[in-house]
Amino acid sequence: xxxxxKTGGYRKGTITLNGHSVEKETFARCTAYCEQMDxxxxxxxxxxxxxxxxxxxxxxxxxxxxxxxFVNEALDILELRPLAGRMIGSSxxxxxxxxxxxxxxxxxxxxxxxxxxxxxxxxxxxxDSRAALVVMTEVHKxxxxxxTVISTIHQPSREIFLMFDDLLLLQRGGWQVYFGPLGANRxxxxxxxxxxxxxxxxxxxxxxxxxxxxxxxx
Length: 218
What we know:
By secondary structure, the protein is an alpha/beta fold. It contains seven helices and seven strands. It has helices spanning 24-29, 46-57, 64-77, 99-111, 129-144, 158-161, 184-194; strands at residues 16-17, 20-21, 31-34, 117-121, 148-152, 166-171, 175-181. The strands form three sheets. A three-stranded parallel sheet has the order 3-4-5. It has a two-stranded antiparallel ribbon with strand order 1-2. Strand 4, helix 5 (129-144) and strand 5 form a beta-alpha-beta unit. The protein starts with 15 loop residues before the first strand and ends in a 24-residue tail after the last helix.
């Protein structure tokens, strides 16, 4: 909803960027959006996919040298250099990229746009635990570059959960359970808050994301 890519559901309120009301056209130019489903041309190589995205997204004011710089930066940061000349292939094909590699490529395709704000729609969907950790480790690198990364995620592992700085936790129906910082190390801020609320009778949680959710009513 915040990214302006979904048309279903109901939203109210104001979206601001640096204190200014968001205009749809301006907002689209300064944001990147990674779809839940990876859509790539199966006959392109990884490098060709990034070059094509850079040519479309960076505009005429950016020189070819600068575009190549963004492509090379994405290849290095997301550790795609060994796959640069490899054909993407169709999803599930034996000779194509694996699901995890395709997801990292989706992030790279958006990274070359040089957008300061990244949206990701369930980037670990359909991945096993190892591939999910690899993908989110690469996404975390993007955040460490100074980009704002906003992601929806379901059932994260402990390692993935603790990569986030802030959390908006919603329960069925869209009711807000928690919105704020996770807290250093072991998500202390989140855990402290959850322990003040009535919750299911579960013991200590090795994964803070598995904390018993309270029943919150408006």
